[in-house]
Design goal:
Blueprint (H helix, E strand, L loop, with lengths): L2 H25 L5 E9 L6 E9 L5 E7 L13 H7 L12
Antiparallel strand pairs: 1-2, 2-3
Length: 100
């Protein structure tokens, strides 16, 4: 095969890979977050809580606490989110359950 044919094949494969990547992103609805409930002892309040955390699918890092039963309105999280910081360090939470 001539060098220009290899270049054409490589360019075609690159376009196919880009199309597959875009289709995969589109099928996920463009979501970059994955939420899952967890139960553990809150490092601030020292009580058993159930939290829903948002995780960046690409990095695996927790980005925010979406809800927490430590608060009267679990969706109104008003703390420093120390639990998120601890989990992002890879450290286990006291009494942790429901780990994905």
């Amino acid at each position: 095969m001539a060098p220009d044919q290899w270049l054409g094949i490589a360019a075609g494969l690159l376009l196919v890979a880009a199309a597959v990547a875009l289709a995969s992103y589109g099928m996920s609805g463009g979501r970059l977050w994955s939420s899952g409930p967890r139960r553990f002892v809150c490092p601030l309040s020292r009580q058993n809580v159930e939290c829903v955390l948002a995780r960046d699918i690409r990095t695996g890092q927790f980005q925010r606490v979406e809800s927490c039963t430590a608060f009267p309105d679990p969706g109104d999280v008003r703390c420093a989110e120390d639990c998120r910081s601890i989990m992002n360090l890879g450290l286990p939470m006291a009494g942790e359950q429901g780990r994905p």
